[in-house]
Structures are given as C-alpha cells and as structure tokens.
Amino acid sequence: RTWASPTTALHQEPIRKVGVIGGGAMGAGIGQLAACKGYDVVIKEIDEGAAQAARKRVVSLVDKLAKHRNLSERDREAILDRVHVTTSDEPMDGADLVVEAVVERAEVKDAVFAGLDKRLAGDAILASNTSSLSIERMADATQRADKVAGLHFFNPVHKMELVEVVRAKQTSDETIARLVSFVRALGKTPIVTADAPGFLVNRVLFPYLGEAVVMVSEGHDVHRIDKQVRAFGMPMGPLELLDQVGIDVAYHVAKSLDSVLVGVSPVVDQLKLMVNENMLGKKTDCGFYQYK
Ligand code: NAD
C-alpha cells in the first residue's frame, strides 16, 4: 500500500498531551524527547521503585541534552516540569496519544491496551513501541482498533533519526496521518510500514546481525568481527549493536522473523542460550562483551 501525502490529505486533531506506559530505556527516551519538543508528558510505571528509576533516566537524559546544547537552568527545569512520572492511572486522563513501552510480552501489552481503551477519551490514539509483536492483536484488545498503531522508536531514542509508524489492517488513515505529523514534530523521520514480522528496519537489519551471531558460534573472534565492520564505515559493529539493543530484545525480534527469514533458527538458538544465562548485553554488563 502506498502512502502519498500523509499529512496534507486529512484534517488532523493536534496531539498536545502524550502518555507513555513504561519508563524503561525506551519509554524514558520517548518521554524526554516529547517534553523537549514542548508536549506535556505523563510516564506511568508499575511501582514506586520503577517510577524512581524512570525519573532518574529522564533527568539524566535532560542533563545530557542541557550540557550538549548549553541550555539555561530555566530551560532545563521547564523541560523537566513537563514530565510527570507516576504509578497511578488518573494523570494519563486527557492524553491525545499514549505510547506503550512495557516488556515485550503479548499478554502484558494486551492488558495495557485494554485498560487504556477503557480509560481514555474515544479519540485518543494508542500506539505500541513493540519491535516484534503484532499490532493487529493489540488493536483487537480494544474497542478502537482504528486508533491503534505501532510507533517504533530505535535505541537510543534521542539519537536515532528514524521512527516506524506501523499500520495494522484496522488502523485508519487519520491515525497514521496524526502519528506521521507527531513524529515530524519530534524532529524525526517517519516511515509507514506494514504490520509484518520485523516491520521494515529489523527485517533488513537482522540477516546482517544474525550472520555475525552465527560467525561467533562458529568460533570467530567478537572483537575482530566488529573491528572489520567499523573499518568498513559503520559507527559500531553488529555485536556491539546487539549488546546495546539488548540480547533479550534481539531474541524476540529474531524469533518473530523465523517465519519470513531463511536461516534465522541458529540465531534464535544462540540468542536464547545467552538470554538463559542472563547475558543481556549492556543492561546486565555482559553480552558478547564483558562490561565490568
Ligand atoms: P525496559 O525493560 O527497559 O523497560 C520496560 C519498563 O516497563 C520497565 O521499567 C517496567 O517496569 C515497565 N513496565 C512493565 N510492565 C508495566 C506495566 N504494566 N505498566 C507500566 N510499566 C510497566 O524495556 P525497553 O528496552 O525500554 O523496551 C520496551 C519496549 O520497547 C519493548 O516492547 C521492546 O521490544 C521495545 N523496543 C526496545 C528497543 C531496545 O533497543 N531496547 C528498541 C525498540 C523497541
């Protein structure tokens, strides 16, 4: 399906208030970015400990930005004032868009979508940052399937240019148009993709990443593979990238690609072994590399 002129074709209600469910690596990044661009942001976490960790992530990201852009203390405070991290549902009321960024488990996401659907105004958009799960299934957990889509940011959110706007078969043109405008307002480049395994980017990227994983299991040296690829002009090698993304996240993506990519099974097996050993990459200080 082609997408000629997504922002001009339809009247669009502007997005003013943005909710984020889950303030982990991705949710905190999405919340921080939206606050920097002037949106009111509510991040909901599961308990007070997780909320505190999410607040810390947001403050650290804003501090980095303030340093990098030489922001005044007033501007830094103004951004932080726009982000409200909470464990309750009420502050989410009035959100025009909620982006779900919780753990990559279908039943958890279904419950989040069903809960949001009951709570939020009928015209609010519900989006998922999932890398590997079906948007169609999440849409079916709601009574507003036309207002459900994927909004797939990449890690780290503040650095990565591209955002995939994922269209499920139920998603309306208006929802896609509003999300495309929102992504542009964040200063990112949207691409509209189908709700298919790996969407576009991971489908293209994973044969490359997977080949590096297979080479490691064949006994090739991790440092050498990454060094050669960097010499080729990439900012980082495939194994460094997998450690940064998270081996658990990569495992879910590889598994979702099993039905469409030839030869991905050994990659799934190898990543599963690492997940079982808690070798999740940078987040556990151990993946293809040891960090501590
Ligand atoms: P993460 O584990 O860092 O964060 C998930 C957060 O969600 C945690 O802080 C957890 O406390 C919270 N949470 C879990 N259940 C919740 C609930 N019911 N309500 C509120 N909060 C809840 O995970 P992440 O790496 O940020 O990934 C989040 C999503 O983004 C996943 O779907 C993942 O596949 C996707 N994604 C990840 C990456 C990446 O590189 N890490 C890239 C693109 C997309």
Structure description:
By secondary structure, this protein is an alpha/beta fold. The protein has two domains: 17-194, NAD(P)-binding Rossmann-like Domain (Rossmann fold), CATH 3.40.50; 201-281, Orthogonal Bundle (N-(1-d-carboxylethyl)-l-norvaline Dehydrogenase, domain 2). 46% of the residues lie in helices and 13% in strands. The protein has eleven helices and eight strands. The chain has helices spanning 25-36, 48-69, 73-81, 106-119, 135-140, 173-185, 201-217, 222-231, 238-245, 247-257, 265-276; strands spanning 17-21, 40-44, 83-86, 97-100, 125-128, 148-152, 162-167, 189-194. Strands 3-2-1-4-5-6-7-8 form an eight-stranded mixed beta sheet, with helices on both faces. Strand 7 (162-167), helix 6 and strand 8 (189-194) form a beta-alpha-beta unit. The longest helix has 22 residues, at 48-69. Residues 1-7 have low confidence and may be disordered. The protein binds nicotinamide-adenine-dinucleotide. Nicotinamide-adenine-dinucleotide (NAD) is lined by residues 21-27, 44-46, 50, 101-104, 108, 112, 129-131, 154-155, 245-246, 249.
